[in-house]
Amino acid sequence: MKHILVVDDEPRIAEIARDYLERAGFKVTTAGSGADALAFARSRRPDLIVLDLGLPHVDGLDVTRTLRRQSSVPIIMLTARVDESDKLIGLELGADDYVTKPFSPKELVARVGALLRRSSRADVPAEVLRYGALTVDIAQHLVRCEGQDIKLTAKEFLLLRYFIEHRGRVLSRDRLLTDVWGYQYTGGTRTVDVHVRRLREKLPMLETALSTIKQFGYKLEDAPAVTP
Q: C or N: which end of the chain has fewer Cβ atoms within 10 Å?
């Protein structure tokens, strides 16, 4: 049974989220402050955290920043803030998804389930990745699409692999630079855009499947569009 930590200083909201998640088969613990959330995450290691941004004293952004220095636990931001910049800051700090208040409890349950499935896929190394008609053979460093071999540079291959392993997630340019190019890379984020453009040129299916998130980064859809 997956263990979900719901963090919100409004008891009624935490109760609603807990009730719906428990009905969906999850074990749920609630916390009312950022300090309590960090203490619980360190001692109990939940499988996913639903985190309100508007917490007193230690807000959700600070909690996210601290958690990301310690673990890769999936985080869904729960926020009443309508300013897009707040959401982008949360994603930049390492949150995986967000739900805006007032929210649908059923949507929250669906997003929790989807994020846990994506995280499980990323945790299990695979020799061959598949995304629609696209096949990525990690061991042999080969890419095929609809039966055709696709020639990619080493960095294009690594970037494509990263997108597929993290499909469904919004990924910032800075995160892509850090995880694909490495911490010591000194070039600007423009190089990410160039490599994405080349991937789209070589793999036309990515024109629609790989979305640009304005002023932030990219997102590979969880599943490719099905052509009628």
A: C
CA-CA-CA-CA dihedral for 114, 116, 118, 119, to nearest 10:
160
Amino acid sitting at position 49 = I
Model pTM score: 0.59
Domains and CATH numbers, the chain: 3-123 (3.40.50.2300), 128-220 (1.10.10.10)
In sequence order, which residues have a C-beta less than 8 Å from that of residue 205 and are 6 or more positions away? 132, 133, 134, 145, 224
Q: How confident is the model at residue 228 (pLDDT cuts 50, 70, 90)?
A: very low
Q: Which two tokens stand for residue 81?
A: 């803030």
CA-CA distance, 208 to 86, in Å (whole number)? 26
H or E stretch including 49?
strand 48-52
